[in-house]
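hey
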């Protein structure tokens, strides 16, 4: 939801000399689905028409569409660290403001909760918890570079007998997943002080060192954070219904429609191998499709360059056939690591269509935490603090543990369940949730 700072294009819409007073009924009609597909959203009681701007929004057009016809104040604040920079770009999009008799947000959103949350955010800003620790992130960067170099050195020095081959795979996989967690931090602009620096560094890590396009990742991940576990708005749910049936509501809906792409009542059994296996070809195909379709030629060039570099590093040491086993074996291990860590906080939680809840309720109903330990922090890239991460996406990960007690106190005050569980329990809960969803689907399929 941030304007492109380098763009010279300007909106031609004149700023109204006198505020146009609007009601929520009018705003809700401009949700991107009606006549003309106009997209209006509200930020701090001011109403903006982002219909044309959404096409050049750096965070992607869909994230704005997901909030069309709604109040987006807290999402806007959460995603943008440099408010002064963004505010001046909003002026040309302004079309009016809420009438004096209109509430600041929709009636279904909890006023006291939002007021307390905004006060909490001010407290967190004053405590300096949104400021990154340069030494922490330098050590993170250094450690995965060492792992990456070690994976090659092991094979180079010891050869490709079974033990060094497997050790090299483990080191390469670990380096790749840790690069993934680090580029995730950069994508949220939580590593370096300036947004531009974070974006450039993210390209270096994800494009050059991992072979994935940064623009593709940000396009999908921003949507996930805006509307987590909201079907048709969170891309992480795109595995429904083709591979898995997710959530009670969606599963019953599938069953009643007699839809059956897979034997969903057995999905907790095939999740182990199918989810990690499916993500590998999906990523490899979609990144090229995305880059070519959107004409992101730099992304495409760097992806190709990555693949050439990796081949030149390893093929001379082990031959092409062994390299294929080595590389795709590593990708499968990485995929397993990625799937279990990223889904343990979300699949067991509420999954439904967008209910347009307030920011806090939206995030808490879709996320849970895993208990803190040095291993859990490292293994998950601090995504064991998923609640804090979703409430404050630009917060550096090393500060999650400091914010956690404050968030927990807020939840206790408002009767919101703040879930924390052991790591292995979180993994098992994925399977329990899939089993329950499959049973709901089967019941509706047979008797609905």
């Amino acid at each position: 939801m941030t304007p492109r700072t380098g763009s010279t294009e300007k909106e031609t819409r004149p700023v109204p000399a006198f505020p146009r007073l609007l009601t929520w009924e009018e705003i809700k009609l401009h949700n991107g689905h009606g006549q003309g597909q106009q997209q209006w959203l509200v930020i701090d009681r001011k109403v903006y028409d982002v219909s044309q701007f959404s096409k050049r929004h750096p965070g992607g057009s869909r994230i704005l569409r997901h909030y069309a016809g709604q109040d987006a104040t807290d999402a806007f604040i959460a995603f943008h660290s440099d408010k002064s920079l963004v505010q001046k770009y909003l002026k040309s999009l302004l079309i009016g403001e809420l009438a004096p008799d209109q509430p600041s947000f929709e009636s279904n959103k909890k006023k006291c909760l939002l007021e307390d949350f905004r006060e909490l955010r001010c407290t967190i800003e004053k405590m300096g918890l949104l400021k990154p620790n340069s030494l922490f992130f330098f050590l993170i960067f250094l450690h995965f570079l060492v792992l990456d170099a070690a994976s090659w050195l092991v094979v180079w020095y010891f050869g490709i007998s079974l033990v060094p081959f497997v050790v090299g795979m483990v080191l390469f996989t670990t380096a790749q997943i840790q690069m993934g967690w680090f580029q995730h931090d950069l994508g949220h602009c939580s590593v370096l002080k300036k947004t531009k620096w974070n974006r450039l560094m993210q390209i270096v890590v994800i494009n050059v060192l991992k072979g994935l396009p940064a623009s593709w990742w940000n396009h999908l991940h921003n949507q996930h954070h805006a509307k987590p576990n909201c079907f048709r708005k969170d891309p992480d749910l795109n595995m429904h219904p083709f591979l898995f049936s997710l959530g009670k509501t969606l599963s019953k809906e599938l069953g009643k429609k007699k839809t059956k792409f897979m034997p969903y009542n057995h999905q907790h059994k095939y999740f182990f191998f199918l989810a990690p296996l499916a993500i590998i070809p999906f990523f490899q195909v979609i990144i090229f499709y995305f880059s070519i379709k959107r004409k992101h030629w730099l992304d495409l060039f760097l992806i190709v360059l990555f693949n050439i570099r990796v081949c030149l590093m390893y093929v001379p040491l082990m031959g092409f056939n062994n390299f294929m086993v080595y590389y795709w074996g590593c990708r499968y291990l990485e995929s397993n690591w990625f799937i279990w860590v990223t889904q343990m906080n979300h699949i067991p939680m509420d999954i439904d269509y967008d209910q347009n809840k307030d920011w806090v309720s939206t995030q808490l109903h879709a996320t849970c935490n895993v208990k803190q330990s040095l291993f859990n922090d490292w293994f998950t890239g601090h995504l064991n603090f998923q609640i804090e991460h979703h409430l404050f996406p630009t917060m550096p990960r090393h500060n999650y543990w400091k914010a956690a007690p404050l968030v927990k106190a807020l939840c206790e005050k408002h009767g919101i369940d703040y879930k924390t569980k052991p790591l292995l329990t979180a993994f098992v809960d994925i399977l329990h949730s899939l089993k329950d969803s499959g049973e709901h689907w089967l019941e509706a399929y047979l008797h609905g």
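The longest strand covers residues 94-98. DSSP finds 18 helices and six strands in the chain.
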